[in-house]
Amino acid sequence: MTTDPRWIDEHGDEIDEDHRGLVYDIRTLVDRRRALGIFGGVGLTALLAACSADPPEQTASAAPRASASASATPSPSASAAASGPLDEVPDETGGPYPADGSNGVNVLDDSGIVRRDIRSSFGSSSTVAQGVPLTIALTVRDAATGSALVGAGVYLWHCDRDGGYSLYSNGLEGENYLRGVQQTDANGTVTFTSIYPACYTGRWPHIHFEVYSDVATAVASGPIVKTSQIALPEEANALVYATAGYEQSVRNMAQTSLASDNVFSDDGGIHQIANMSGSVAAGYAAALTIGV
Predict the structure, then answer these.
(1) Band (91; pLDDT cuts 50, 70, 90)
(2) Exposure letters 37-64 (e unless 16+ CB within 10 A, then b)
(3) Domain ranges (residues) in the chain
(4) Nearest C-alpha neighbor of 163 from the set 121, 124, 195
(5) Rounded to an integer, what distance in angstroms lies between the CA atom of residue 100 and that of residue 98?
(6) Judging by DSSP bridges, how do beta strands 206-212 and 179-183 pair with one another?
(7) How many Å apart are CA 177 and CA 271, to the nearest integer?
(8) Are 92 and 229 in contact (CB under 8 A)?
């Protein structure tokens, strides 16, 4: 968890305080409980006035796991009904490749970033990321009430089949695939069409996301309500990585575990493991409900 006042990236390296960026500074100052007031229309002035409050305890609830070998066509879904208070998903590092404007690269203000299908690059390149199909459904709820947060902005990104991140990795500086922003629907859900990410050295397979008050705030690289990660379940990882193109992931998975991962190791990742359905042939669907 990123509760230490230092900022640690997902490779375990400390990031100098002077290089965290404006987004991080605002995010650190703003009390998350009060930041949620943005959803009710509170403006930036009121948001900054809330900076003096102490942050609440952060806990999270475990998501049930479905069998990764199911053969049904993926169909993630979520209930819109309030479920009562639920634990807040843990804060996690955005890692060294967020492209959210916090470290010199910003894709959020690019025309085309608001989209459901994130498999291809947009703009000057039309490269399509290859891999086993994956649908990602993230449902965002108010941790205090369980009510769906309608109209929130969600920015989601992850690595490709080879473990590379667009805009950063060697040869991918001109690509922006596997990144996208969407608005939560009446259920508080965003659904992205993507591919299954690799397992690269030192990390358990995962997906990054940031929650904003709305899409306008997201594309302006405004204050972030929540930064966290989704962990992909071991059973599905093993099946996907047995397919052509994921050979490096097989070796990397053999050298890591949820217990040793520098992000999920505090609780074995059970609070952020996605519910998984589908198959290699039909494609997989990963669904997770979070409280913010």
Answers:
(1) very high
(2) ebbeebeeeebeebeeeeeeeeebeebe
(3) 58-291
(4) 195
(5) 5
(6) unpaired
(7) 27
(8) yes
Compute the distance between CA of residue 158 and CA of residue 150 in angstroms, rounded to an integer: 24
User: What tokens were used for 100?
Assistant: 């959210």
Kindly report the pTM of this predicted structure: 0.74
- Give bridge partners of residue 228 from the DSSP assignment: 209
**Is 190 in contact with 198 (CB distance < 8 Å)?**
no
- Retrieve residue 236's tokens: 């599905």
Q: Is the pLDDT of residue 47 over 60?
A: no
HEC letters along the chain: CCCCCCEECCCCCEECHHHCCHHHHHHHHCCHHHHHHHHHCCCHHHHHHHHHCCCCCCCCCCCCCCCCCCCCCCCCCCCCCCCCCCCCCCCCCCCCCCCECCCCCECCCCCCCECCECCECCCCCCCECCCCEEEEEEEEECCCCCCECCCCEEEEECCCCCCCCCCCCCCCCCCCCCEEEEECCCCCEEEEEEECCCCCCCCCCEEEEEEECCHHHHHCCCCCCEEEEEECCHHHHHHHHCCCCCHHHHHHHCCCCCCCCCCCCCCCCCCCECEEEEECCCEEEEEEEEEC
Q: Which residue has the higher pLDDT, 242 or 69?
A: 242
d(CA 129, CA 127): 7
The CATH class of 58-291 is mainly beta
- Determine the Cα–Cα distance for residues 247 and 240; give it in Å rounded to an integer: 10
Q: Which of 160, 191, 148 is nearest to 292 (CA)?
A: 148
- Pick from 241, 236, 181, 231: nearest CA to 211: 181
Report residue 213 as tokens: 């008050």
Mean pLDDT taken over the chain: 79
pLDDT bracket for residue 163 (50, 70, 90): very high
